[in-house]
Design goal:
Order of helices and strands: HHHHH
Distance between the termini: 88 Å
Oligomer: single chain
Radius of gyration: 25 Å
Helix content: over 70%
Largest sheet: none
Strand content: under 5%
């Protein structure tokens, strides 16, 4: 029993040490470490609140509680995914400088299609 507890404690300490090292390394390599820490805290609060809300809704065991826990889980998952998605704008296909408008390996450009049609 003591050996099992010691092994579990060793695994936990190893996990915490490796996680701390990875967090520290990503903070040192980032341009804005305060923003990264803010987003880590925001993600932890979002996930913690989601787990707590799901537990509170579905602990009674009724079908309504389980369904509402499922819905809350989906909403919190979408919120976490939205938070982690990079905010890049989609390039306009009308701009000549956008990669979407210039790189089409299997299609002719719209300008070439219009010029090749008989008038």
């Amino acid at each position: 029993m003591v050996l099992r507890f010691a092994f579990g404690l060793l695994v936990l300490l190893l996990f915490v040490a490796c996680s701390g090292w990875l967090f520290w390394r990503s903070l040192k390599k980032n341009d804005d470490p305060a923003r990264v820490v803010f987003y880590w805290v925001l993600t932890a609060l979002l996930l913690g609140g989601g787990f707590f809300g799901i537990y509170k809704l579905s602990k009674d065991g009724t079908p309504e509680g389980k369904f509402s826990g499922l819905v809350l889980g989906g909403i919190s998952t979408l919120a976490a995914a939205r938070r982690r998605t990079p905010r890049r704008s989609i390039p306009s296909p009308n701009r000549a400088t956008s990669k979407a408008a210039t790189w089409r390996p299997f299609a002719k450009s719209a300008r070439n299609l219009r010029s090749s049609q008989p008038t």
